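Exercise 7. Predict the joint structure of the components listed below.
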Amino acid sequence: MTVFLALRDLRRGIRRFVLLGIVVALVALLSTVLSGLASGLVTDGISGLRALPLEHLAFQDGADATFSRSTLRGDAVEAFTAVDGVEATPIGATFVNATSPDGGPSIDIALFGVASDTFLVADDDAAAALDDGEPGLVLDAEMAEDGVEVGDRYVMGGSGVELPVVAFTDIGSYGHAPIAFVPLETWQQVQYGADVDDRFSAVALRGASKADLQRAAGDDIEVLTRTEAYAGSPGYTAETTTMTLIRGFLLVISALVVGAFFTVLTVQRTRQIGLLKAMGAGNGYVARDAVGQMTILVALATGVGVAVGIGIVGALAGTDAPVELDPPSVATVAVLLVASGVIGSLVAIRRITQVEPAIALGVEP
Amino acid sequence: MSDPLVLADIVMSYPDGPSRRVVLDHLDLRLGAGELVVISGESGTGKSTLLTVAGLLRRPDEGEVTVAGTRASGLSERKRTALRRAHIAFVYQSANLLPSLTATEQLQLVGHIRGERVSSTRDRARRLLGDLGLGDRLDQLPHQLSGGERQRVGIGRALMASPDVLIADEPTASLDPRLATSVIDLLADAARDRGIATLVVAHDDGYRRRADRHLHLDAGKLTEVSVAD
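Solution:
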């Protein structure tokens, strides 16, 4: 055990460390809740895209992964299917405000036009519903919880196309709007009216590497991984950047607080440090003991803060707040907080090394 | 065998305005194993400075300190620390105990600093404290001990290091005469029984009856005082 003195100091003098412990625990709590919020927002923004069984998406060059800026035609699909083992299917995507013709509440949806026989629709019942009879909306199951029922009819804003709800399935959302699958032809009718011209937004791909796909695509088409395509979701980059910045600031604040506290503690313990050195303890021994103490304290406080934060996220998950518990993110937050605390405590190391052992005899430098 | 502590031609000075004030002026001192030497002197004459030099806590401006046969002047700070750890222990005026450690742990800390396993030092620490009359105070924290008990723990901590040289800075200054006598006896017995060269700074006359030599520090020089005086 390398922290003989530190452990006993913590155990028997815990009152001296309560303030720092509370501050670190609060930072950990806030970081955990923010992490939950960030994960929730990301899920709300791209859960549909994340759930689609595709590996890559091809957009018009320069569209920056944004469906509304990308327009491709049928020949783009053919270019990909010519590659061995590649599955390619067109996909159209538009945000639509759908209004109820009989005066019911309107809904905002991300309208995804897909071919009914495509690999994109994994649920057989949903695929069958898209394929049979009158074209209609296959809505994310979450909409059923909001009171929408099969058979309800909605008028697609901007086009006047009226569609019935034909099924529900777990699709997820895109750009914070629930996804609705419709047959590609219907989507083209909503998007382009009579002037369809075999247009759609992007090509969903799987079965080959990005480099091979890009080679097949040529210069006018940009192939992105699914993760890269997240950036095209409205607000995604701004939200993740904001959350990352806030969490970064919290880490810096945590490091500064620990560093400041530890520096004050080191000044208060100058005579004790001198005593240890007079007893033959080297700088390494004293520094290990001190940094070890901070590490234990910060780790404990972080553990408490994260545990409370997880509880709060869990409680919020049952509400409309877009939060989600993502264990890897929470674990990363905890590890980074402890690391930032240790880094913060290192600022006092220089001060420790400068304490002269003669101070133990009351002789000032 | 060489003497445990030898100070030869030591000069130590401090800045004093534009010049420097010499507090140790070509001072020589030699302590043999088991010898108890008491240093007295007026306040500000450099007694504590002498202890810091003898205890390898400070480097002198000039001269050589030899501890257990090893000359310290050419050593790096790390090696001086190792030399101190191996051969020198201190007893302080106010015991200087660590507030979060029990009496036993105060002694175990010495072993821990030397790289010994904590569990392996427990019995020795408790036995030593028992020898010092603290057998029923082993698990008390410093604030639960009396002044005399604290000082005895401080002596136990010094003896735990099995030092060749023990340096004590007015260890009885804050004790009443009865306790002071018992602490003086403890130190003197420890020096003789364990062969420790013991250098004590004290104003207390009680040391004279147990000291082998009594030296007076004045103007940077040590002069012998008859122990019979």
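Discussion. Residues 63 and 69 of chain A are 5 Å apart (CA to CA).
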